[in-house]
Fold this protein.
Amino acid sequence: MRGAATATDKWRERILAEALAHVAFDGWHDKTLKAAADKAGASDAELKAAFPRGVADALLFFSSEADRQAVEAIEAADLKPMKVRERVTFAVRQRVEAVMKHKEAARRGAAVFALPQHALDGTTAVYRTVDALWRAVGDTSADFNFYTKRLLLSGVYTTTMLYWFADNSEDAADTWKFLDRRIADVMQIEKVKAQVTKFAEGLPNPLTILGTLRYPKR
């Protein structure tokens, strides 16, 4: 849940709402933002304060708003009966559905983030999304698993979004099937990783072996 909105926050919301009505046709451009700001009644200074870097900041805000909506939907659901796999699947689905009404805007936004000059922003947006989803489903890991979970989910999330962009099936049915397959793949990886970890724990310490080789007993 976010805190009280500032004047700049409100301008961001208004300008984004106006922009989303046009980017599906005109794309994410500074001219589109300027037209949206004019329609929202924002001055050039207010537009600059809302999105200092223009399109890049507008897209990050668009992504964060979708994250917020997805998290609210996840937190409103009863996750207790769900297994981790089901929770994660549900979370990714909520994130896709958060931009369902703005599919073309989301697709064009992904194309902008794929450009070299916006690659870092794109990576930032994906990380924030998967981190928000993991936290929403109750993840409290703080060790190496914290990073591996987010890395694996970023792959699931990005490929699912890309699949959805090209999916014309009714109610995105094919996308949800694709998501199920991707989650199954990840769970298999986690299973293998656990087996390897267990096997490695039974092996002798390699440093001890090296020490023995370097300083053999007399």
